[in-house]
Amino acid sequence: MIRDITIGQYYPAQSPIHRLDPRVKIVCTLIFLVSLFVQNSVLGYALAFVFLACMIHVSKVPAKFIGKGLKPIVILLLFTVAMNLFLTRGGAVLFHWGIITITETGLRTSVFMAVRLVLLVAGSSLMTFTTTPNGLTDGLEKLLHPLNRIHVPVHEISMMMSIALRFIPILLEETDKIMKAQIARGADFESGNIIQRAKAMIPILVPLFVSAFRRANDLAMAMEARCYHGGEGRTKMKPLKYHYQDRLAYAITWGYLIAIVVIGRFVPFKLWIF
């Protein structure tokens, strides 16, 4: 299960999306996320799915890798679907048994919410798979640069987010090693109720926190030894510059947003209750 969490991991490949400017990928990801909330129709979500599938194909990131990253949200997905399915009222009653009632509005809302959540996580993951942590830091810093005028520590915020993303795979790997070591010593993390399982996790959390603090201290000492003093006056080995493919990516993404708004809001289409 720990190995299935792919948040923050970078998948190296030679693809057009990998070569895009980090600012383009951040902005286009935000546009894609916005597109999931500005419409609520079958055609709109179908267009969003096709667009994301094309981007995954162009990025050369294996679909299995994307799917593996969705496994950790299965519980959240099922909980969201159940809450909307059984608690949302409206429209004709499709099923009723005791206190359980499923209506047209509840079924429609739960299905759309599940699709939206899957597309949201998959789209966000694609950005981290195709962008290095350093690239994300530089891109965020450039995009948030106007906030420097109101004395917002943009560089420090970008650096913290980049370090946090970089530490996620490291800590997951450390957790996997600790769990295997505890299992080899006879620990059992599978049997028992929720409280017993929570107690069994304590031998994992303590060494994990110790390891995390040690790694953070080593990183701080390494940055201090290299005379790191923030973003003021720092130069870039590879300064970010827009190229033709970046402008083309912007045009395609904005065209997609316009298309999904028009199709999702103004094209009449109904499939059963959807």
Describe the fold and architecture.
The chain has 10 helices and 2 strands. It has a two-stranded antiparallel sheet. It has one domain. The longest helix has 31 residues, at 154-184. The protein has helices at 22-35, 42-59, 63-70, 74-87, 104-129, 133-143, 154-184, 194-200, 202-225, 244-266; strands at residues 93-97, 100-103. It is mainly α. GO terms for molecular function: transmembrane transporter activity. Forms a stable energy-coupling factor (ECF) transporter complex composed of 2 membrane-embedded substrate-binding proteins (S component), 2 ATP-binding proteins (A component) and 2 transmembrane proteins (T component). It holds the Pfam family CbiQ. Its main location: membrane.
Q: Give the count of structural domains.
A: 1
How many strands appear in the DSSP assignment? Answer: 2
Mean pLDDT: 84
Main sheet record? 2 strands, antiparallel
Proportion of β residues? under 5%
Tally of individual helices? 10
Q: Taking strands numbered 1, 2, ... along the chain, how are they ordered across the largest sheet?
A: 1-2
Contiguous low-pLDDT stretches (5 residues minimum) are none
Measured distance between first and last alpha carbons = 34 Å
Pfam families: CbiQ
GO molecular function: transmembrane transporter activity
Protein name: Energy-coupling factor transporter transmembrane protein EcfT
InterPro entries: ABC/ECF_trnsptr_transmembrane (IPR003339), EcfT (IPR024919)
